[in-house]
Amino acid sequence: MQFDLLVRAAMAVGAVWVMLRWEGRRGNATGCSVDLFDAILVSGAVGVLAGRIGAMVAVGINPITDPGQVLLVRTGVSASVAAITAIVVLAFLARTDIAGIADAAAPAIIFGLAGWHGSCVVDGSCGGTATDVAWAISLPGSTVGRHPVELYGAFLLTLVGVGLALWKQYGRPPRGTVAGVALTAVSGIRLATEPMRVSLIGGPMWLYGLGFVTGVGATLVAVLRRNRKSSVEARTQLVGPDRSEPRIDDDTADDDH
Predict the structure, then answer these.
(1) What φ, ψ does residue 80 adopt, rounded to 5°?
(2) CA neighbor of 193 nearest in space, from 89, 120, 123
(3) Which residues constitute the domain of residue 79?
């Protein structure tokens, strides 16, 4: 029996650990009220488990009577169920500071997704739809070229994860923008690569579209909020403190006693 799901999960967890380790040395992933690695690990594990069960149910496999199938990826993992479950769990764990913890965890989560996609090399599941591009790959015993779609995703997600980590370190982005950009990028990558992906249950394009729009909206709100705060602070410095309240001079106060 091949425990493909465990191998892919292990590579994803390893990628998360590497990014958190890299960021921690630069002070980017500190100051949170929860342990980032534990929070990401728990939310990811629960999400993958829920997504795996969702995929089994979708193709008619009963997870209760055949629990061993949970550890195999023959029918895949339901991306919509996994993503929604993981987001809900992470939001619950980060409920004391959702924006701050989401910003801190975003690069590591994306790096973990890159590890998940890149683990296709272990079970030979990198191929997608047929193509004749020069870098096409083929399945064993076949001459049909296929898009290495999972490697596309792994490469793009790696670039996004590293880019966000560097942006946090050098750019000092507004609070909430890192998470917003991360959601936008992940959703956009899935939207771009899904047509090249072969799936038994199909990809939830509606979910990726919703994630893209939500990410863009969250980013804009975060930027506008900081700009508004900066404008208020600048106006306060120019005008000075509010003098609408009556001022009582010391002499007047003495006369009242």
Answers:
(1) -65, -45
(2) 120
(3) 4-239
Residues 6+ apart with CB under 8 A from 34: 93, 94, 96, 101
Tell whether 109 is covered by a domain.
Answer: yes
H helix intervals, 119-168: 120-123, 149-166
Query: 67: which 2 tokens?
Result: 């629990």
CA distance to 44, 68, 192, 234, per residue, from 80 (Å): 13, 22, 16, 44
> For 56-94, what is each residue's pLDDT tens digit?
888 787 777 777 777 665 557 777 788 889 999 999 998
Q: Does 116 fall in a domain?
A: yes
pTM for the full predicted model = 0.81
Q: Count CB-CB contacts under 10 A for residue 169.
A: 12
Whether residue 227 lies inside any domain: the answer is yes
* DSSP 3-state of 130: strand
